[in-house]
Amino acid sequence: MTVSVVIPALNEARNLPHVLPQVPHWVDEVVLVDGGSEDGTVEVARTLLPEIRVVRELRPGKGVALRTGFSAAREDIIVTLDADGSNDPAEIPAFVGCLLAGADFAKGSRFVQGGGTTDMGLIRRTGNWGLQRLVRVAFGGRYSDLCYGYNAFWRHVLPVIDGEADGFEIETLMNVRVLAAGMRVAEVASHEARRIHGQSHLKIFRDGFRVLRTIIREWRRSLRGGPAAEAARLRIDDRSTIVGPRDRRSQHDRRAAGWDRRSGHDRRSSSPGSTLALSRDRRSGHDRRSSSPGSTLAVSSNGHHDREEIADAGC
After folding, report:
1. How distant is the alpha carbon of residue 313 from its chain centre?
2. What is the CATH number of domain 3-231?
3. Which pLDDT value is given to residue 56?
């Protein structure tokens, strides 16, 4: 298991010193997608992290930058991180931990227990709530947050989330696509801070309309997809943030497949050839994870990941 962090940036030289040094040391690759910065962003990035990969993308828009970064990323897991200091890189282990626990896609949420934001006014908060409710009606599921850029996913998800989204609506497109595809999604509590320096490129009404247009377009797409529309109806267990396709099997079949009635977790293998298991410790409330003999959740093929840092960031 290897990890890439993709960071889109435009004139973020003053913010990068608050971001790049905080990226966990076990991350294998950091890809900075520069949109033609004129303030020395690239030079600062290379000073702070000499091994950083810089990709130039002069076409405007966060969505364009992220898609370029996704194409450049080479590792098994891809994490998206903002360059303005609003996302805490120390939360990366929690996102990776959820993927190792069986999720295909881990999305940050500011509105679950443990999350929060100091960068969202009443208009943005109201708009996000309304759009999130619209997605629930159109696609099912119980997303608590929709328009947030802190996400992580396995490489096999890339074909699913590839679509037309040049701006901030890329975040909504990704969330809706994995929902409609019936993938296992986990919401990760995340705290959004205020941008440290400079002005945000987000325009509330313009970008809100683009998000709305994306939801409508993807809803029509799901209707044309036939069976995909049913796959969009997801279940969330009240005691777990991991969601998956609705399971209509009998209780007996669910137990036989490894469903833990007390914790609500699915103890089935997360990928062919693995025996990843989830169980809840009643005394501590934490998930205990086990894998096949001789392996651990946090060890990659090159063996330099911090085991405890990831394994303790339970999903």
Report:
1. 15
2. 3.90.550.10
3. 94
Q: How many CB atoms lie within 10 A of CB 254?
A: 15
Work out the number of other CB atoms within 10 angstroms of the CB of residue 264.
16
Give every CB contact of residue 95 below 8 A, 6+ residues apart in sequence: 79, 106, 108, 150, 151, 152, 188
Residue 260: per-residue pLDDT:
41
Nearest to 15 by CA among 41, 52, 54, 34: 41
R_g over Cα of the chain: 19
Tell me the three-class secondary structure of the chain, residue by residue. CCEEEEEEECCCCCCHHHCHHHCCCCCCEEEEEECCCCCCHHHHHHHHCCCCEEEECCCCCHHHHHHHHHHHCCCCEEEECCCCCCCCHHHHHHHHHHHHCCCCEEEEECCCCCCEECCCCHHHHHHHHHHHHHHHHHHCCCCCCCCCCCEEEEHHHHHHHCCCCCCCCHHHHHHHHHHHCCCCEEEEECEECCCCCCCCCCCHHHHHHHHHHHHHHHHHHHHHCCHHHHHCCEEECCCCCEEEECCCCCHHHHHHCCECCCCCCECCCCCCCCCCEEEECCCCCCEEEECCCCCCCCCCCCCCCCHHHHHCCCC
Listed as ranges, residues in the chain with pLDDT below 70 are: 200-202, 226-314
Q: What is the pLDDT of residue 280?
A: 31
Domain residue limits, the chain:
3-231
